[in-house]
């Protein structure tokens, strides 16, 4: 297996990969032949679309969609580049089509503000022109008002001799002028959408936006009487759909939008314009409604697989009928070319952050190794760049805190320890607590007890013991499993019962088989990767043959006894090593997926198996009963020439 880099080189051009003296890949090899000192030697493309790595299909779709102004829906794992592709599209759309949107007072209906569009950059000039004119009229009106007030007061005091009546008359006149000034203020339009300073097409991220932020709103006016009310057009606020006009509207987790918002969003897409009105109880309500505002945007909707199920079918039909759907890849083939791109990715993260020291070649090579581990597939690299970028930033922060001029491999290794996920931290604490209470057995032998391996979250392994006990049944026998099993796990236990009935020397119809998942936690057990563990525990209990407690295992089990591949094998092996276990049994099909950290590699022995008979041979302690059991199983084990990991069909995907 490949581990850390062992050499470093000095220029910035691709070269033929060299070989290291210890048989492991050198730094130059891990960087795909890229010979550099630091990431400062790597050129970062200016366009975002050229910075996208690994999503070639999605990249091609975005290029076509930008050219043809089509909508796009991207579905895939979080952190694989959906938002980056959406921003990249905004750079590809032409800027010359951008316009400013002005909203003005409607003298015929104050609750129906008018909308006007002008070329980008002209909106502010129009506003200034109206302000100058309003200011001149205001100055003239103020001068006239003071002349009238002085004349009224002079007449009242000097001629009529009625000072009180004069003061009252002056107040009335002042109020009349004040109310008329409101009409004067209403003559100045408001810029609803300004594109004056944009060098690229607009990009609006409306992820999680409430109705007002998405569709526009009308602000509440606390002064609605007495001549102090704000003109209705001044209270109108544009939504993301209006700001994104002639640009890109990006909505991640599209299924989280309310049904009404999705319906109105569909209307905006279909009509190319959408009026603004009050959307909440804090707004002015439905009394104010503008003329239609342009919403000629390109929409990029994104989400996970469940987004399609909860998405409004008419909205999805609109996107699908007038655009593209693309599934984002999770991994990419590990080739020299892609490794060079991953080195560029590190350089991009350093440049975009602006505060991180550049990475040495050894540090970049360690990032590539981590991308291999997180892929979960031999010969592939992960495309979850958001999480990988987090590791880059943590490593850079550590280097900066130390005052280091560059980020080294030691900083990356420290970042991997510091940037552990919550699940990893919980798993480590869980293992330590089990040791305190003697819940973990790593030596000796016990009948019916097997150390299984499970995964918490996405990247954290944990040891999960399984205990089986067989008792005489008072009626029809069955398998009774406890530990919060989910649907898939329950079905896996049923498959185990079929295998055990086939191989057992006793009649299970007269027995109750109790299976307990020890310390499964509140979330219970999901998936079928513990079915090999359950089968081993049940067979041990039936045959009264002890299980070696220094052995841990994982794997799915077919009804014929074949051991099938599962997910998270690398993390499970590392968890077993942390717990002090010595031998790890894994499916033979997963052998290619093992990328264990060097600190754990020499602490465990990994045994790949293809059939339950091989599992029992490793896990059960030597005894006369074991030999008898294996003799019985030998007639069922797959013979030579047949793929021991599957039947004639394709290899199933990891569970």
Automatic annotation (TrEMBL):
The record's subcellular location field reads: Cell membrane
Q: Where is this region: Disordered?
A: 1-27, 632-655
Entry annotated with the keyword Metal-binding = no
One of its GO biological process terms is: protein catabolic process
Keyword ATP-binding (UniProt): yes
GO cellular component terms given for this protein = plasma membrane
Bilayer-crossing regions: 144-177
What are its E.C. numbers?
A: 3.4.21.-
State the active site: 529, 572
Q: Main location per UniProt?
A: membrane
Under the heading InterPro entries, the entry gives: AAA+_ATPase, Lon_arc, Lon_proteolytic, Lon_Prtase, LonB_AAA-LID, Mg_chelatse_chII-like_cat_dom, P-loop_NTPase, Peptidase_S16_AS
**What residue spans carry the Low complexity bias annotation?**
10-21
Q: What class of enzyme is it?
A: hydrolase
Q: Which UniProt keywords apply?
A: ATP-binding, Cell membrane, Hydrolase, Membrane, Nucleotide-binding, Protease, Serine protease, Transmembrane, Transmembrane helix
Domain Lon proteolytic: start-end pairs:
444-622
**Which Gene3D superfamilies does the annotation name?**
1.10.8.60, 3.30.230.10, P-loop containing nucleotide triphosphate hydrolases
The way this protein sits in the membrane is described as: Multi-pass membrane protein
Per UniProt, what is one GO molecular function of this protein? ATP binding
Query: Domain of life of the organism in this record?
Result: Archaea
* Protein family (similarity comment): Belongs to the peptidase S16 family. Archaeal LonB subfamily.
Q: What binding partners and quaternary form does the record give?
A: Homohexamer. Organized in a ring with a central cavity.
Functionally, this protein is described as follows: ATP-dependent serine protease that mediates the selective degradation of mutant and abnormal proteins as well as certain short-lived regulatory proteins. Degrades polypeptides processively.
Q: What is this protein called?
A: Archaeal Lon protease
User: What high-level taxonomic lineage is stated for the organism?
Assistant: Archaea, Methanobacteriati, Methanobacteriota, Stenosarchaea group, Halobacteria
């Amino acid at each position: 297996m490949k581990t850390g880099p062992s050499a470093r080189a000095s220029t910035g051009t691709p070269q033929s990969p060299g070989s290291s003296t210890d048989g492991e890949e050198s730094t130059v090899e891990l960087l795909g032949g890229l010979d550099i000192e630091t990431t400062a030697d790597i050129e970062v493309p200016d366009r975002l679309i050229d910075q996208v790595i690994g999503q070639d299909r999605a990249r091609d779709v975005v290029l076509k969609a930008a050219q043809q102004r089509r909508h796009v829906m991207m579905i895939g794992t979080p952190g694989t580049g959906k938002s980056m592709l959406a921003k990249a599209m905004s750079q590809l759309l032409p800027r010359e089509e951008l316009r400013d949107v002005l909203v003005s007072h409607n003298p015929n209906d104050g609750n129906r503000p008018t909308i006007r569009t002008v070329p980008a950059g002209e909106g502010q000039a129009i506003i200034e022109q109206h302000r100058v004119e309003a200011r001149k009229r205001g100055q003239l009106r103020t001068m006239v008002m003071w002349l009238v007030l002085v004349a009224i007061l002079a007449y009242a005091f000097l001629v009529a001799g009625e000072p009180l009546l004069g003061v009252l008359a002056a107040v009335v006149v002042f109020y009349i002028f004040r109310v008329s000034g409101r009409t004067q203020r209403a003559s100045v339009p408001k810029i609803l959408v300004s594109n004056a300073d944009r060098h690229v097409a607009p990009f609006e991220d409306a992820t999680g936006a409430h109705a007002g932020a998405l569709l526009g709103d009308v602000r509440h006016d606390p002064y609605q009487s007495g001549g102090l009310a704000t003109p209705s057009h001044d209270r109108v606020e544009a939504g993301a759909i209006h700001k994104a006009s002639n640009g890109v509207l990006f909505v991640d987790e599209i299924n989280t939008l309310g049904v009404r918002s999705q319906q109105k969003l569909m209307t905006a897409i279909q009509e190319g314009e959408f009026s603004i009105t009050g959307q909440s109880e804090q707004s002015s309500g439905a009394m104010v409604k503008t003329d239609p505002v342009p919403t000629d945007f390109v929409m990029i909707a994104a989400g996970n697989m469940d987004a399609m199920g909860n998405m409004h079918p008419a909205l999805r039909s609109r996107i699908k009928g007038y655009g593209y759907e693309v599934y984002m890849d999770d991994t990419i083939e590990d080739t020299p070319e892609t490794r060079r791109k991953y080195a560029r990715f590190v350089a991009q993260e350093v440049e975009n952050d602006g505060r991180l020291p550049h990475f040495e070649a050894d540090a970049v090579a360690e990032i590539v190794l981590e991308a291999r581990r997180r892929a979960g597939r031999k010969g592939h690299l992960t495309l979850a760049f958001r999480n990988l970028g987090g590791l880059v930033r943590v490593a850079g922060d550590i280097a900066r805190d130390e005052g280091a001029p560059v980020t080294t491999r030691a900083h990356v290794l420290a970042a991997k320890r510091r940037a552990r996920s919550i699940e990893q931290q919980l798993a480590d604490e869980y293992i330590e607590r089990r040791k305190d209470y003697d819940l973990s057995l790593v030596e000796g032998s016990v009948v019916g007890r097997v150390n299984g391996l499970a995964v918490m979250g996405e990247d954290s392994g944990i040891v999960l013991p399984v205990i089986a006990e067989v008792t005489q049944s008072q009626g029809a026998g069955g398998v009774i499993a406890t530990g919060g099993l989910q649907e898939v796990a329950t079905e896996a236990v049923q498959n185990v019962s079929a295998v055990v009935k086939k191989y057992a020397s006793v009649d299970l119809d007269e027995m109750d088989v109790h299976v307990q998942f020890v310390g499964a936690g509140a979330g219970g057990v999901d998936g079928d990767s513990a079915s090999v563990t359950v089968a081993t525990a049940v067979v041990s209990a039936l045959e009264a043959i002890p299980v070696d407690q220094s052995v841990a295992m994982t794997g799915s089990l077919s009804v014929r006894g074949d051991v099938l591949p599962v997910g998270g094998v690398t993390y499970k092996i590392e968890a077993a090593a942390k717990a002090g276990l010595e031998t790890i049994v894994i499916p033979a099909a997963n052998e290619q997926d093992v990328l264990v950290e060097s600190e754990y590699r020499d602490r465990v022995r990994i045994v790949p198996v293809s059939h339950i008979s091989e599992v029992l041979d490793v896990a059960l302690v030597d005894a006369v009963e074991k030999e008898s059991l294996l003799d019985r199983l030998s007639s069922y084990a797959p013979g030579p020439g047949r793929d021991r990991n599957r039947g004639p069909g394709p290899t199933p995907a990891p569970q």
